[in-house]
Amino acid sequence: MKTKIETALNEQVHAEFFSFYLYLSMAAYFKTQHLDGFAHWMRTQAQEEYSHAMKLFDYLIDRGGDVNLLGIDSPPANWSSPSAAFEAVVKHEIHITNRIDELVSLANAENDHATSVVLHWFVNEQVEEVSIADTLFHQVKMVEDNPHGLLMLDRELAQRPDVSLTAPAGGE
Ligand code: MG
After folding, report:
1. Helix (H) or strand (E) segment spanning residue 5
2. Which of 119, 113, 72, 67 is nearest to 96 (CA)?
3. Which of 74, 115, 121, 130 is the most buried (most CB within 10 A)?
4. What is the 3-state secondary structure (H, E, C) of 85-106?
5. Alpha carbon of 23 to those of 28, 132, 164, 170: distances in Å?
6. How many domains does the chain have?
7. Distance from the alpha carbon of residue 51 to the mean position of ligand 1, in angstroms
8. Which of 122, 112, 134, 135 is nearest to 167 (CA)?
9. How far is the CA of 32 from the centre of ligand 1 (A)?
10. Quick one: pLDDT at residue 41?
11. CATH code for position 116
């Protein structure tokens, strides 16, 4: 595996772990707001980010690359409102999408087809991530001045199934 690709994949592992930290921090924020369903949704989202990091971690090892775990900065701990938190999720996922797109371009430029294929899983995943976050952002914005609506949405988000902590299959 070329050093350029190895470095870029390690940086993406780091970006996925930062996403894990960010959504875990949002889970704690929603807990302090007594919105337990929102907190559960964010905690599940954090678990999904952990599994994304591990998918790339496993791939680096499979390809004989070195894993270099980089330091993770503290995420923000507070948001001005539930919709502000979800707006931050949308912005963050667009940022991650841009990073994945750059990685695909790099893998293609370096003729690293195996890496391109693994990254295609992430390309599809990001479409879903941005779409879900954007829908929730708008729904939260619609209801957040209405306690009844907010509690209804909280109960809905509480139903999100847990995700596996093992790296998702596919694209390999
Ligand atoms: Mg991710």
Report:
1. helix 3-32
2. 119
3. 115
4. HHHHHHHHHHHHHHHHHHHHHH
5. 9, 14, 16, 24
6. 1
7. 8
8. 122
9. 25
10. 98
11. 1.20.1260.10
